[in-house]
Design brief:
Layout: E1 9-11, E2 20-26, H1 30-38, E3 46-52, E4 59-63, E5 66-70, H2 72-75, E6 78-82
């Protein structure tokens, strides 16, 4: 039987550089949600925060073997569990 441990999710924009997270939910709607799904951001996909631009936004993430830059407003709509 599974324990009652509480999983805490954070938005992808809060994932520290060098850390990995597993996608658990998308809060984006319509076209933005479709774009995220097209990028491979589906449930249980592992995402790694690689580096931040000099201005701090966007951030480069490794997603399914590809490096993709997401703005913080987009990344805030993706909930991940730390890996």
């Amino acid at each position: 039987m599974r324990s009652n441990s509480c999983h805490s999710f954070i938005s992808l924009d809060r994932l520290p550089i060098g850390r990995m997270g597993r996608v658990k939910a998308l809060t984006a709607k319509e076209q933005s949600r479709r774009r995220m799904l097209d990028l491979g951001l589906i449930n249980d996909t592992v995402v790694e925060a690689l580096r931040q631009s000099p201005s701090g936004d966007p951030v480069a993430y490794q997603i399914r073997g590809a490096v993709i830059a997401l703005r913080s407003e987009e990344a805030a709509q993706i909930l991940v569990e730390l890996v």
